[in-house]
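Bench log, entry 3. Co-assembly request; chain sequences pasted below exactly as received.
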Amino acid sequence: MTSTALSPDRPATSRRPVRSGRPLTRVSGLGLGVAMMWFSLLVLIPLAAVVVTASAGGWSTFWQAVTNEQTAAAIELTVGTAFAVTLVNIVMGTMIAWVLVRDRFFGKRALEILIDIPFALPTIVAGLVLLSLYGRNSPLGVDIANTRPAVFLAFLFVTLPFVVRTVQPVLAELERDVEEAAMSLGASRFTVFRRIILPSLTPAIAAGAALSFARGVSEYGSLVLLSGNLPMKTEVTSVRILSSIENDNLDSAAAVATILLVISFAVIVLLDVIQRRMVRRG
Amino acid sequence: MSIEIVNVSKRFGDFVALDNVSVSIPSGQLTALLGPSGGGKSTLLRIIAGLETADSGRIEIEGVDATKLSPQKRNVGFVFQHYAAFKHLSVARNVAFGLEIRKRPKDEIRERVHELLNLVHLSQFADRLPSQLSGGQRQRMALARALAVQPTVLLLDEPFGALDAKVRKELRDWLRRLHDEVHVTTVFVTHDQEEALEVADEIVVINEGRVEQIGSPDELYDSPANDFVMRFLGPVTELGDRLVRPHDLQLLTGGGEPDAVPGRITRITRVGFEIRVVVAVGEQLVTVTLTRNEFLSLDLQVGSEVQVRVAPEVAATVGQPRLLGAV
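Structure output for the full assembly:
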């Protein structure tokens, strides 16, 4: 093959973004300024305020608030349940997205719309629905009122759309000939999914998982009715924060809020790292 | 015969993609499936690969009945128009994919990938991602990936269709040379008659789900089986009721030969080395192409009176039914 006179290969230019030293134009400078101000007003300043309030009482007050038995139980329940729910969503959400994109069936359009209901519904309405279905007088004979499964169920309900909605468009964009290429190279359907499709979906799944986790941690309305908010048993952090505020204990509320902030941030970073790893490994 | 296609039909809803097609594709050769878009040639290729199933008919690959085999079991290499690169894997791992699936030992894989990347001139890009390659490089990677598993047949679906004209021509030459070296039975789909004529040992012309003609490039060009093949393989013009190629016509300025008809030049266009002269013969506009030298020696101008005839040596060799019928 050395005889072929193919034009010499120029090294293709690397597409990696290069940090450019180019000064901003007036318009893009203005855009950046507005974006930063907006972001600061809405997000950075309030978050900083929470952290400042939490640290106002000093380290010992902070530590005391967080290690308070009842608070610690609430944090553990919330974070643990949000984790579990996120895991379930990763599997179920991907599957639902798959069905919506790849299969044709009667009522598909209706299902498309229904998927968003948990997201669009006011959460307290969701709470009411859950209460009437799984509460004391459950028509289904399933009574999980005032138990931990109630928290789990409420989280599941409100976080359902996230993974579905992030995965769906990516799955729809996947080129079928890539899968066909893998098949003609001998890959079974499962191998095609694991080695070709899944790596392409991982970023979308991770994004959906992060949203679902964050939503779970912050959930209030949908579980407040069904879970009963029993201290040490079914009380979640959002409820705990509210009761701290009602008892005029702002420092403690801010301390718990800060912990939640840190955990949420850590989870988002972790998911991003995992996602990058997965994609690279293929 | 390496690939035997027997009475294959395929419909998509009301659309008949293939209508009782039978073709034998010889071993070790480079065969082109040529035809207009939507004529069924890609469908036929996909049926050979098992990516599509025929409604009826039979496919045999190297003597094995493959009609019911899954694509995984056909041992066929397939190259797609839009590369179908595994975007998250490096070039080397793209090529290694089929071998990894077959659970070959690591050393063997490494060696084979190295060998193939040399073959397609991509060794220095082994660790790049496909997105960092040009279109032509990506298609060469796809070819190496398909060849890695030592397929019985190599199938290419419009392999150069997404590339620009220059790269396409380059890769065309290169595919021909690659085939002369590797000798794997190769079938490629194209709608570009020039590509088919230049690269293929044998051409199967497919139109509206049927095979119009099978033959070598020379046979098809010189003795097309019907008007469609004649029109599809190159430029044509009509003189009287005969269908001829513009370069098979002669212009005479002198006295009347018995087989020539008089006309007047209405238009002269120069395209590079070729001059297109449009001659009005009665109501009919006949296109004649001349080389630059022929044109200059005749001293032609718009409005010149000329005689037009089919070059005598051509009239004798082209066995075109319509032509013969008209004489």
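The domain at 39-281 of chain A is CATH 1.10.3720.10 (MetI-like fold). The two ends of chain A are 31 Å apart (CA to CA).
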